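Chapter review: from sequence to fold.
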Amino acid sequence: MDDSAGLLVAIAVVVVLAATLFLFIIPEPSQRAVIANERLDIAVLPFANSSSWPDAQLTLAGRIESRLVQAAGIDVYSRAQLDALLMEHAMSDTGLIEPTTAIEIGSLTGVSKLITGTVYAVDRNERDTTICVSWQGSECKSEAPAIEYSARVRAQVEVVDARTGRVERSLDLQATDTTTLRATSVFGGFDSLIANASTSIADDVVGSLTTAYTRELRFGLYAEAESRRSGWVGKDESSRFSQSGDTVHLLVHFTRVLRSESFDVAWLAPDGTTLASEADVVSSGEWRLYEMNVADLDLGRYRVIGLLSGEEAFSEPFSVVP
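The token string follows.
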């Protein structure tokens, strides 16, 4: 087999694999709803630091709080207010917390969860290596001496129930960040590497909390929908549908919910009256298609609401146009 024939075979294999993968992958709807299993108000307490790197605990606690603020379904108590409260009541700021203290903080702040822990190691390393300084396409043509700098942060993070003082989750986490510079370049220090590693740990903390304490679904409104394997694929996502005969297709993927959880859909007119509703029972991983024909509806702005176990998951507007 010559090179050109081999290339054609390789391309054919790639095309077949891509087509097969397309048939198996179901793209997620664009909209995301996160619903807390319980009231999820969180305060990040000061962390302890038993590592050799000063203020590593401040960096990690700050990154965790920042990531929690950005997370859906979670409310975060102001750290400035918390620091003032700890000082006012002469409470421990060492990263270690007694059950009675946790309950007292919960009572004073109204939070349901406390995050605390310890940075117990920050490992830094430098090693000689090389770096490519000249490329030709994807091939390196010239290398130069370089130094790889790395920092690994190791920490234990605890989630404490502020109503009982009980440690609900204990996470032993670590993350590493690296950078490689030419030997002649000036290295700015390990602070940025430690901060990046702390951010990775913070992402793990938020991911663990989200998985443990929230449910999630994905949804979208489409002009058309077709079944694919065990799910649905929407076409022409839109918030405007023609009175001349369009049907609104609401696709919902229950990515993480309780087993056999109730789900209700209500289609509302511009004046708030219910045009149609449907009661359903769903579990994690399931897909649902709900439809509303708008051919007989007046022009105007409508809304579809989804309720998960009686709690509003989304309220999505759409318009009926000529």
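Two observations follow directly from the output. The helical segments are 3-24, 56-70, 79-88, 99-109, 191-213. The CA atoms of residues 259 and 283 lie 5 Å apart.
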